[in-house]
Design goal:
Helices cover 47% and strands 15% of the residues. It is built from 9 helices and 7 strands, in the order βαβαβαβαβαβααβαα. Strands 3-2-1-4-5-6-7 form a 7-stranded parallel sheet, sandwiched between helices. β2, α2 and β3 form a beta-alpha-beta unit. α1 packs parallel to α2, α1 packs across α7 and α4 runs parallel beside α5. The radius of gyration is 18 Å and the shape is globular. It starts with a strand and ends in a 9-residue tail after the last helix.
Length: 264
């Protein structure tokens, strides 16, 4: 891993921060992308204090021109990443009629178009080199659907669709594509998007545990190292995906129950 150049989007907090720190601890040189410059610097410093190397690149990934310009700069100054972690995401979990067209477009801009732009920028270099890993962090919402999060689900399905198509299209090029579907992860997202947690499907925490950012990062890094096509955590979602294919109405009925409101 010491020779690896790893680029992580959405690296200023949550899953992205934990993933960047884990790669840094394993010896990779980590490039961190997000909007918040001060948070990126704090994460970079934390990686360097642990003996790793990292650099932050503030950018609004919803701005395709800025994203492509930065990708060109990274390629020119540093080179093509060995691993691209498309983790950045946005989106408030809302009912369809409560979601504005502007919010729906923002949810497509990040994660879908941001991942498309960066992948399109770096994939040619990976193909020419004959090696590389493209990683797409998504949600079980890519494969399951429930009310109260329609625009979010649509954006996540678009991201998973892109990744799965690339798995076929890039076969034989030496570039591996990994789709990572993570259940609920305890991150600042829930504080930044009030009301979203209440729109989660109701699940038994004994069967579907809430993940920490560190657990999510370990699943991502290990899955990439093992060149796995799909990583699903918690594993029970694999059974739910199969059950949904066989009995979609049953699964839809169960998922339609909203989560219990957190106690004060």
């Amino acid at each position: 891993m010491a020779a690896k150049l790893v680029l992580v989007t959405g690296a200023s907090s949550g899953i992205g921060e934990a993933t960047a720190k884990l790669y840094g601890a394993r010896g990779a040189h980590v490039l961190l992308l997000a909007r918040n410059a001060s948070r990126l610097e704090a994460v970079s410093q934390a990686i360097r204090k642990k003996g790793g190397t990292a650099a932050g690149y503030p950018v609004d990934l919803a701005d395709d021109a800025a994203t492509q310009t930065l990708a060109q700069r990274i390629t020119s100054e540093i080179g093509t990443p060995d691993i691209l972690i498309n983790n950045a995401g946005a989106g408030h979990w809302k009912k369809f009629l409560e979601t504005t067209p502007e919010e729906a477009r923002a949810m497509m801009a990040v994660p879908y178009f941001a991942a498309f732009d960066l992948t399109r920028a770096f994939a040619p270099g990976m193909i020419a080199r004959g090696s590389g890993s493209l990683v797409f962090i998504t949600s079980p919402a890519s494969y399951l659907a429930w009310p109260r999060a329609s625009a979010y689900i649509a954006a996540r399905r678009a991201l998973a669709g892109l990744a799965e198509a690339l798995q076929s299209e890039l076969k034989g090029t030496g570039v591996n594509v990994t789709v990572v579907a993570l259940g609920t992860v305890e991150t600042p997202y829930w504080q930044n998007n009030p009301g979203s947690r209440e729109n989660l499907p109701q699940t038994d925490p004994r069967l579907v545990p809430v993940l920490t950012s560190e657990q999510a990062a370990e699943a991502i890094v290990d899955g990439v190292e093992q060149t796995r096509r799909f990583v699903v955590k918690p594993g029970i979602f694999r059974a739910l995906f199969v059950l949904n294919a066989l009995f979609p109405r049953l699964v839809a009925r169960e998922l339609s129950r909203p989560a219990k409101k957190p106690s004060a």
